[in-house]
Amino acid sequence: MDTTKSRPPALDTSGSELETLRHHLRHYRTRAEQLQYALDHRLPIEQAKGILAERYRIDVDEAFAMLRTFCRDHNLKIHDAARALIDQTSVAPRRVAC
């Protein structure tokens, strides 16, 4: 996904104004879908990093490295591993330390 483009590609100026507007609408609708997909996949990764950082008392960069290494070693997509970690954590009993 190329996130650097924010304008639709140039159109042939011989087309009608309505066709130009439709072209722009398609472009921005596609862009919105791409951004939503990226957001949907990034949030679980951030949550998993936080879980690992808290669990192992490491910073989030080390947590990401741990998650990435695990995924490479087990041929998993990082988003799938993150979701599994979140789901596992949400059903586990919570311990509170004072």
From TrEMBL:
Boundaries of every ANTAR domain copy: 25-86
Signal sequence range: none
Organism superkingdom: Bacteria
PROSITE patterns named among the record's database cross-references: ANTAR
Pfam families the UniProt entry points to: ANTAR
Organism: Amycolatopsis samaneae
The protein's name in its UniProt record: ANTAR domain-containing protein
